[in-house]
Amino acid sequence: MKMFQQEVHLKERKRGFHIITQEVLLALPQITQLTTGMCQVFIRHTSASLTINENADPTVRVDFETYFNKAVPENDPGYRHNDEGPDDMPAHLKSSILGSSVLIPIRQGRLALGTWQGIYLCEHRNFGGPRKIVITVWGD
Prior knowledge:
CATH class: Mainly Beta
Mean pLDDT: 97
Largest sheet: 5 strands, antiparallel
CATH superfamily: YjbQ-like
CATH topology: Jelly Rolls
CATH architecture: Sandwich
Strand order of the largest sheet: 1-8-3-5-6
Helix content: 10-25%
Radius of gyration: 16 Å
Shape: elongated
Number of strands: 8
Structural class: alpha+beta
């Protein structure tokens, strides 16, 4: 079994849902050495998250942002944690709902994503700054 790991510093992005599949692939070209394996992508932050979804139609990412803003609104008077602004606590909640990692099978040296699937960086802060992800791949 082979195992590779790389930390990647993603550039700052505006609030929303952004496809980062190519950045993941560029960071670990060793994926091509694996016939069968797994790829885990983990984000090292509590106010951004990762998910896998539609990679073709950008309106899906806009609709994701719309949905999560309705489901987890800012300025809720019940929130106690607001030291960093009205988007802070909602960002933590959205991050927990979506999760901090994705796990993708590797087949024949490629991520076994579906035809219309991509890896999303879900930026939940208005000014989240650069983000760090750790990518680990293992297999045969």
